[in-house]
């Protein structure tokens, strides 16, 4: 089937394309899908060029072919790449969802590779639709290293020395690979990036002791994959806090929030001119008061996140999967549904308060699925898995393991290593500015950012629905005439 996709590695630049999309992962898929769904004026056809150097077009780093136990950490109902259509992903899955039910959660938990197939399918449908609209999509398998003004045009430079003109540019570069915080690159036995785990773990002796740097969702993926492959050696998670992600709970009702909503936050802002963290806390209290919630119990649990024994806390989390109290469920949902909007309205002092509790917020907002938590609990109980908080550098130097896997998650709004030259060029040419809290802020209406690199976002990494919402807003901006 002709999808209108041109994979010529060195296309003739010709006339200025309508749009250059830098990056070909989930954010780019969401943007193309939103562009295909919107009305494009028939008088404004134009080529869209997508620049993606990796071999896994449309999947991005997290969703390439991998082991089936490497799972998406959210249920299908909140994984749609199409903004405003929560059933888009579940409809695509269809009967396959029944093959991946998490018995504790009672919902499908899908392998990342299968989610990558969904992204690929969505992108191909969007590409075909755009081609029918007179906007063919070309893919350039090269890394963009710079963007500059050339008269009224924008010109993109790639690592192979080519130049490509564009009317507008959208950066969809993703979150990047784990940062090497401890200078271990080049050390024998060191794995800088665990994905894809199917390839990474092929080189790990099954009886070796393994140090995993990090204790977030990526570290959980590493441990679960090791267990699935029958690893016999000891596994140690090293991180500054030792905090594991919280564990998803079963949904208890389908009620929509009544108090902790974007509408109520907007009312607060209209009435008082600002929105404070205390005011948001009051909205949470109101929400829980009418939903079998216990605010004091939730607050107590949050306060002990970074101090409680990780194994004991994990056991309590597993025991609470069916807990009827709604507190943590409401907070997790609000972190993504209301959090990004509320964050923009908070005074800087309140933002600083939240940043000081980043590890707790990330653990709550990005929980692990119970099936993975059960594997960790079993390994902790058997003594094969150990969690060591504290000075990671000193711990690794004291007892050097044969194998070290870097599972550190990049900080939100950080610049991926592969995009540093690109971002620097945008700043140097005045097309963008770096935000003091991280991320890139476009300084030209022809430059757009979709995904975690977008400045001014929440202090936690955006979810797939958050990225889809950004893509929808960007698509509207791209369809609007430039002033």
What are the segments in which pLDDT stays under 50 over at least 5 consecutive residues? 1-16
Class by helix and strand content?
A: alpha/beta
Strand coverage percent? 5-15%
Q: Which strand order spans the largest sheet, edge to edge or round the barrel?
A: 1-6-3-2-10-18
Q: Tell me the overall shape.
A: globular
* Quaternary structure type: single chain
Radius of gyration: 23 Å
Distance between the termini: 39 Å
Fraction in helix:
25-40%
> Roughly what is the average pLDDT, rounded to an integer?
90
User: Count of helical segments?
Assistant: 17
The tally of strands reads 18
Major beta sheet summary: 6 strands, parallel
Structure, explained:
By secondary structure, the chain is of the alpha/beta class. It is built from 17 helices and 18 strands. The protein has helices at residues 26-37, 88-93, 112-132, 197-200, 217-228, 262-272, 277-289, 295-303, 310-319, 327-337, 339-345, 348-355, 358-365, 370-382, 392-398, 420-428, 464-479; strands at 5-6, 19-22, 48-51, 101-102, 107-108, 137-140, 144-150, 153-158, 163-166, 169-171, 190-191, 210-213, 235-239, 385-389, 403-406, 432-434, 440-442, 447-449. The strands form five sheets. The chain has a six-stranded parallel sheet with strand order 1-6-3-2-10-18. The protein has a five-stranded parallel sheet with strand order 11-15-12-13-14, with helices on both faces. The protein has a three-stranded antiparallel sheet with strand order 7-8-9. β7 and β8 form a beta hairpin. α1 (26-37) packs across α17, α5 (217-228) crosses α14 and α9 (310-319) packs across α14. The two termini are 39 Å apart. Residues 1-16 have low confidence and may be disordered.
